[in-house]
């Protein structure tokens, strides 16, 4: 087989942002100026160090992109510094739209008649961007990043995309051939975690294998997370 036709492998690491300062526990969605907490910055530093260690062990980490929201750009900053890579903001990595954005969602909020039309179909879901839409944009950006990494670093090159829990979880469920509707409490996509998409051939059109890791797990005890935050 000629080198022109040889398979080109690549890995795309989907990094979830660190903990956000959100004392009122609202659904912040795409709202601006929601910054990482002090602990969230620590998580981002740990993730950056874990990726730098991976590079020291021989990985070719050559491309970095992030959702344009504050919390993802702040998470990407130490990764950029550790790997000496420019951050490429990409709207396709952004948090989904959500009708409940800006609200602390509790029983009294959900009882308001004005919200009922947005809760009629949790399988879609009816309160925001559909699961299928999220899968489509995430699949596009992941495959593009994998191919871009190979263009820059050759066979086996790797990229890092900093995004949010739900889009990452949708990308994973799609790659694993699972139903998109799910219980938010069962998502395996913790703060500053890495959901790594491993492509044996970026041009074959086959779904990647998924490897999950939590470099900041030692910082989790005592954290009360909002599903999807």
Automatic annotation (TrEMBL):
Q: Which Gene3D superfamilies match?
A: Phosphoglycerate mutase-like (3.40.50.1240)
The GO molecular function terms of this record are:
phosphatase activity
What GO cellular component entries does it have? cytoplasm
Q: What is this protein called?
A: Histidine phosphatase family protein
Organism whose genome encodes this protein: Kocuria subflava
């Amino acid at each position: 087989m000629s080198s022109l036709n040889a398979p080109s492998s690549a890995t795309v690491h989907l990094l979830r942002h660190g903990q956000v300062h959100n004392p009122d526990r609202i659904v912040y969605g795409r709202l601006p100026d929601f910054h990482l907490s002090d602990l969230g910055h620590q998580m981002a530093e740990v993730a950056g160090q874990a990726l730098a260690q991976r590079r020291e062990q021989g990985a070719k980490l050559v491309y970095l992109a992030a959702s344009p929201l504050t919390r993802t750009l702040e998470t990407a900053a130490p990764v950029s510094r550790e790997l000496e890579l420019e951050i490429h903001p990409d709207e396709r990595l952004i948090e989904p739209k959500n009708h409940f954005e800006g609200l602390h969602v509790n029983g009294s909020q959900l009882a308001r008649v004005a919200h009922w039309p947005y809760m009629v179909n949790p399988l879609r879901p009816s309160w925001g961007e559909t699961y299928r839409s999220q899968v489509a944009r995430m699949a596009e950006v992941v495959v593009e990043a994998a191919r871009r990494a190979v263009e820059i670093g050759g066979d086996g090159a790797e990229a890092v995309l900093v995004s949010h829990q739900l889009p990452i979880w949708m990308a994973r469920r799609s790659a694993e051939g699972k139903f998109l509707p799910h219980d938010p409490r069962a998502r395996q996509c913790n703060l500053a975690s890495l959901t790594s998409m491993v492509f044996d051939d970026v041009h074959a059109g086959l779904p990647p294998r998924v490897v999950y890791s939590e470099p900041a797990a030692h910082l989790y005890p005592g954290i009360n997370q909002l599903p999807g935050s």
